[in-house]
Amino acid sequence: MEQFEEDISSDAHTDCLIYQGVEELESEAFNRGLPEKGMRPLLANGLGFSNSEQWVADDLEHAAPFKASPVILLIDDEKPFRNVLKQVLSKAGYDVVEAADGAEGITRFYEKPADMIITDIIMPEKEGIETMIELKKDNPEIKLIAMSGGGWYGTDIDFDMAQKLGARTLDKPFALQELLDVVAELLN
Question: Which whole-number Å values give the CA distances from 85 to 40, 45, 121, 134, 137, in the listed order?
Fold first, then answer.
């Protein structure tokens, strides 16, 4: 019984962290002047999700899923951020595979080939640019989105390299709807 209670407590805690992550992303993106749109979880008494499967979509008409769900490989070393993006993309109808860094991402890609790769640029093991180069070499048609919060030297150089590889770029933090719009545009 104690293990069951710990599991429930852990799930509620995870749901709260995801909700906080969504709120933080939306708030920071709004502060940058981007529209505050996207998917928001329904709350129960302010303690987390009323049901982790219930979401309110502000506007998903541009992110309608395909008949056969496209596979998205999501690579980011920040687990809370990755969890938020996975939830949002999954709720929009995409099949999301996760990886914590580029090396794991390459392994996951060959286990389950993806239609799109969304990757952070600055990560341990194998960073995003190196990962995109390696995957693009054997899969030139792969759709790419590169994200970065800048690091100590900014994003300009990395984003320039990512764009030369054919990637769309997103500056962290970004509005969740902005991500959904870019994903839908690239997969259509």
Answer: 12, 24, 16, 23, 26
